[in-house]
UniProtKB/TrEMBL annotation:
Residues 46-118 form the Ribosome maturation factor RimP N-terminal domain. Signal peptide: none annotated. It comes from the Bacteria. This is Ribosome maturation factor RimP. Residues 1-17 have a biased composition (Basic and acidic residues). Belongs to the RimP family. Its main location: cytoplasm. Residues 122-194 form the Ribosome maturation factor RimP C-terminal domain. One of its GO terms (cellular component) is cytosol. Required for maturation of 30S ribosomal subunits. Residues 1-30, 159-180 are annotated as: Disordered. It is found in: Cytoplasm.
């Protein structure tokens, strides 16, 4: 049943495209960023590296009066603390100055400099290294979900002490640490701890 619906939708889209072409209307254009993020990345990397920081992500989003250049920075993987607000302010100023130097100013936009949130998803090995000592929410490829304390990161996978089920009010306890293979993890993110 699903296949025939998909085919019907495809034929409907093809008919609409043919009608637009017959009327001289071009197909909607794919959205392109308002700035060349690859070129800007090359220009901004030295500024970010001066602060001994890592460029996690650079995104250009929005259009018209709502354009934003979002730059996400992080500490090196051997650090487990967070980027301070003072550092964010300093880096933001330096990046803004550099952007003023390399752009003509014809297309104004908002610059947003941030760092990854406290409950970041762990999608790269460097994210795992930055999270050593923290509690991690794991979802396996089999769909199992559990919490574990991250002790170390190896080539084979993270070394984790799985959290035991305890009664409310009891002190948390953990199983012996074990290496969890990278291929067994579907997703992982840092869990906020209020009483750590």
């Amino acid at each position: 049943m699903a296949k025939s619906t998909d085919k019907k939708d495809l034929n409907s889209r093809e008919r609409r495209a043919a009608n637009r072409a017959a009327q001289g209307v071009s197909a909607p254009k794919t959205k392109t960023p308002f700035v060349n993020t690859d070129e800007i990345r090359i220009q901004l990397l030295p500024v970010i590296e001066e602060f001994n920081l890592y460029l996690e992500e650079l995104r250009a989003r929005g259009a018209g009066a709502n354009k934003t250049l979002e730059i996400v920075i992080d500490l090196p993987e051997d650090r487990t603390d967070f980027v301070s607000l003072d550092t964010l302010a300093e880096v933001s100023q330096a990046l803004s100055k550099k952007l003023d130097e390399i752009e003509d100013g014809d297309s104004p936009y908002m610059l947003e400099v941030t760092s990854p949130g406290a409950t970041r998803s762990l999608t790269e090995r460097r994210h795992w290294k930055r999270s050593i000592g923290r509690l991690i929410a794991i979802t396996t490829v089999d769909g199992e979900k559990y919490l574990a304390r991250l002790n170390d990161v190896t080539e084979e996978g993270p070394v984790m002490a799985r959290k035991k089920e305890t009664k409310k009010g009891q002190k948390p306890s953990y199983r012996d640490p074990e290496t969890i293979g990278w291929g067994t993890i579907s997703s992982a993110k840092v869990e906020i701890e209020f009483n750590s």
